[in-house]
Structures are given as C-alpha cells and as structure tokens.
Amino acid sequence: MVKISQDFAPPFKLIAPFFLIGSLFYFFASVYLFSFDAANLSFVNPDMIAFTHLFLLGFVMMVIFGAMAQLVPVVLEVGHFGVELFYAIWPLLLTGTLLMVLGFLYFPALLPYGGVTVLISMLIFVGEIFLTIFKVKKLTLVMSSLLISNTFLFFGIIFGLLMALSYAGTISLDIASLLKAHVYAVLGGYIAITIMGLSIVLVPMFTLSHSFSLKPLKISLIMMSAAVVSVVISSFFKIDILAYIGYALAAVSMVVYFYLIYIIYSTRPRKENDIYAVSLMFSYISMLVSIVIVVFYFLTQKEEFLLASMWLLFFGFFAFLITGHIYKIIPFLVWFEKFSPLVGKQKVPMLADMVPYKSSQAQFVFCAVGVVLITIAILTKGDAFLHAGASFLFIGTLAFIRNVFYMINFKA
Q1: pTM of the predicted model, to two decimals?
Q2: Least enclosed by CB within 10 Å: which of 169, 185, 331, 336?
Q3: Where does the chain cross the membrane (predicted)?
C-alpha cells in the first residue's frame, strides 16, 4: 500500500467545487443524449464533438483535477506549491468548457476563446503540479506516473487548441492528424495514466489491501506511454504501422493494469460489496468489453463498433470509476474536516454512515442499465434503446447529484 499522510491536504472548500460542478456536467451529459439519433451517430458530427467535450472536460477532467488537488500533496508528503491557484482553475475550466460546447454547436467563433480559456486553466494546473512534484527529492512510481501524465496533458491541450483554431477558421491545419494526436495524448496519456497512478493509491487504501507488487503498474505505464508516443508520431508522419502498434500496446497496457487491480481486489481483507466495490466491478468489466468491441472495429472497420467501444470507455469505465471513488473520497474529506476533531469527545459517524445507501444503489442500477441500453442502441442503431438508456441515465445522474450534495453537507 502506498504511504499517505493527511498533514498536507488542502481545505475541503478548495476541493468541493470540482466535485459539485463535475456531477452537474455528468447530469447535463445525460440530458444531451436525448438529442441524438441512433441511426446517424458519427465522430465527425459537431453534436458528438460537443457532447464529448462536455463529458470529458466538464465531468472527467473537473473531478480528476479536484481529486489530484487533494491527493498529490498527500501522496508526495509536501505542501502544494501554490494551492490558491486551484481557486482559479475550476472557474476557468468551467467557462472554457461552456464556450467550447457552444462553439461546436452554434458559434464556431467562440472556439478559440474557449480553447484558450481551457488551455490557461490546464497550464495553471500542470505548472502547479510540476512545481509541487519538483519539491520532492526522490520520485516513486506513483509520482512518476503523475509526472508522465501531466506531460502528456500539456501536449494534448496544445494539440486541442490548434484544432480549435483550425475548426474556427483562424488557421489552416490538418485536423484529422491533430485529432488522433489530441485524443491519444489526453485519453491515453493523461486520463488513463492518471487513473492508473491514483487508483493504486486509492483502491488499496479503501479495500485495505497490501503486500502486492507494483511491477504490473510499471509495465502498464511504460506500455501506455509508448502507445501514446507511437500514435502521436504516426499521426504527424503518416506511418500507419506505428499507429497499429500504439493501439495494440494501449490495449495490452489496460489488460495488465486490470490484472493488477484484480490482484489487489482478490486479496483484500474487506470483502463487502458496497457501492464503491460494485462501481469498480462495473467499471473494469466495461473496460474489458470496450477492448473486445474495438477489436471488432479493426476487423470490420464499422464505425458503430468504435462508437460503442468509446461509449463504454467513457460512460462505463471512466464514469463508474470516478463515481465509485467519489463515494469514498467525499465522505473521507468531510469526516476529516468536520468530525476528526471530535473523536474521543463525542460520538462521531462512520464513513459508511455518510453515504446514502438506497440513493447510491439506485444511482448505480439506473446508470448501469442506461450504459448497457445505449451500447445496444449504438450497435443496433435503435432509437428506442437510445432514448430508454438516456432516460435511465437521466434518473441515475440526478440521483448522483443528490448524493454528492448529501455527502458534502452531511450532519451527524
């Protein structure tokens, strides 16, 4: 288990807006699904591009930034270089995300402004994390993963800004080449590697697992990094073989990472399947199914397989991994701030008492059913499945917002 200390944790009021705003964007993304036509789904559709940025920037990146604001100094055991900078990051990311979504949907002229605003927020984040990491004399594997992921994020947002400028007509570039580099640098280089690094801290901490080898994590990080570099190089120099090598490396990297999570989970002393455990189960199953489906895409070149694979990666793997951890992170932070000073003086709640049981179970069921139905809708091009799945996700994400507010405002 990775050693952690709460001595360097920032105040919860710094972290809370990231989780609150992220949960709202998760809900808005579910509402957005009602506007799609299952028979006409495509990656090049502006509606799909706007939806992807709404979900990834507004929900995934917002929550990851908040989690890293808390976990980076705790894991590194040093204070943030400039913790006050996080008060500027979420308003900039929020504003930039909204401008980019509006730009893709209605006003392309807004894209450069949205892109620059997102760029500024992420550069502040990357710069602050780098300067915090540089305060540490010796890097561990987890710290190295954060350094690698934030390096990829830096290049990913540069590629994204160039794409936004080209899409708006400000400059003329090959968007197709930039798109592949942007997607892999952000999804594989930043989000996947960050998840690998942070989950190796969080999963053992919340399941009480220990005495496992980090060698699979090292292998997975190396393979994913090589995959991203291969795809980025192939996108600029039109070397197709490098792209396929990158795809294969990324898939194997995720399987190796899954194997490590399986080892941690199977050796855990805490065996109960709470909302955290079942969310992670669904998340990792979604990841494996996503990998299987993408193999069918390479065999058939049918876009619906790639769409279904990405859908499961986003709303199955990313979303359930994030929501599952939020059910652990928020109660822990709220308990530490509100109730830890009262230990020994009066009765204090357990962490499990701070999670609304029925509502969290309902959120899981509705969101899981919604993800499955929309996967079927994408593969069969069935509008009935799409709207049914969107309805389930709408209810599930609404319950999730309620749960986040409940946990943040919990009173004994």
Answers
A1: 0.91
A2: 169
A3: 12-34, 54-76, 85-107, 113-134, 146-169, 181-207, 219-237, 243-265, 277-299, 311-336, 357-379, 385-405
